[in-house]
TrEMBL record:
PANTHER family: F-BOX PROTEIN-LIKE, OS02G0160200 PROTEIN
Domain F-box: 25-77
Species, as recorded: Castilleja foliolosa
Top-rank lineage group of the source organism: Eukaryota
Higher taxonomy: Eukaryota, Viridiplantae, Streptophyta, Embryophyta, Tracheophyta
Matching Pfam families: F-box, LRR_At5g56370
Protein name according to UniProt: F-box domain-containing protein
Chain intervals for the UniProt region annotation (Disordered): 1-25
Amino acid sequence: MNKQSVKRRGDDDDDDDGGSATTIDDRLSQLPQPILHHILSLLPQKDAVRTCLLSKSWRNLWHSRFKVEFNDDWFATQKQFWSFLDNTLQRYQNQNLTLHQFIFDVRSVFDFALLQKWIPVVITKMCLRSLKLIISCGTTVFPLPFIVFQSEFLVELHLEGRNFNILESTENVMLNLNNLRTLRLHCVDITDEVFEKIISGCPLIENLNLLHCIGLESVKLHKHCNIKDFGCAVIGETIIEIEDPHALERFYIENCCWNWYLVHKNKHFPHLKSLELYRVQLPAETFSNFSSFFPCLKELTLDLCEGLEKFSLLSSSIKRLIIKMDMRSSIKAFIDTPNIRYFEYSGHHFQHFLPSIEFAKTSNEWNSQITAWYNLKRLDNDAMSWFVKLNKLLKGLSQSHITLTLIRNKYKKLDINDSYEGFWKPVVVEHLRLWECFLSSSDPDLLNCFLRICHPRYIHMNLYEEGGLECKKVNNLFEFMSKLIPDEIIGSDVWLKDLVGIEVQDKKSKDWQIVEGTICFRLTWREQL
């Protein structure tokens, strides 16, 4: 920045010779203090402290920012940690400062009395808006001050850990969180009755996140029409009922049957944009009239769900679809999503099953990403059919820009039949990524199969040599080429007649050239000319 003659406040007092103040361009320091405090509140605690080095005017600014964080990992001893917490909050109280956000994260034995002392103070006298308490200290039980559930200032409450005694904190207390918009309960012990009491005192709740709460068997939201973001990861069977899902925009469910769907199957979710299901058992009728129930759904994630052996998905609104599988059988799917922008499929690393996925015709450009593991020992007797299935999968995605990642987790020479004629026409693939690629006698055969089923524009490899218990990274490109494409197959394999040129690039290089190190190939095929 161009230097300007700006006199910083307080500089006159610091000049020993009584001369003029040092000229410096410090425009940021000239901003009003509330704005500077807001900027500091966006930074992590350690970064906020480091701002004291910027200039004299910033030296003590972090002491009064709107956000404080306390983490016992930052201190060598517990005594230092608790002394810092006590001194910091005492300074805020003495200066009558406002505190918007309070974050407390402790993983060791802590001082109950000190926390009991300061939580009511920061909530009532400092107008606290956001309270986040993470306590993981073995079997120690911490009764929360009841004022936590009676604050009219709090708009966000996050409790995490099994050390909270929420029952005692809410017993015989009228709960009143009239302005609370966000409630997150992670790994806490809570009964249905206590949860019902808490949520009844939050009439304006918009974001509700319940992760792995012990003892929670039902979540019933009958008078909460403002909920936009709801997430629930259950332990065991949990009933989920939302009387009015009209405002709901994001829904996350983990580890349960699709019971919320069965309960709400006659209701519509007109504004739901993101639906994420993790380890959910899906009944056969899940995708029936899917688009009418979720007319505005843009993102759908099916992560390790059961019940996807055969399904059809029709939706004109979905733009992002992610499927991750952990099954001992493959899936067969027909997907009609004309406005799709991104599709991702990922198989489990212990399985070598490939899905059968067919997309209806789309008019837009979109990207797809496929990640599959192949176990050479399991494929030994059925290797060619696996490559045929992969070829058909790529054909089903041929409308998109495909990134194919193949990861090998067993190393064994394959007996591949060169006369096998079950392949479709090779599919254009943008990126072919071969991870954990070991140079062995089977690699030329594998490369032949890969290049029979697809024509990648780029091939990415991280290469290693097999050598006892240690695997050495390949650094010699020419050695790699001689092993990967030996002389006896050059000119004889069917895919070579379509290959016009090969260029290579190092991971750190900007230019395409012959290099040593991690290798990326750029291939040019006749159909691209």
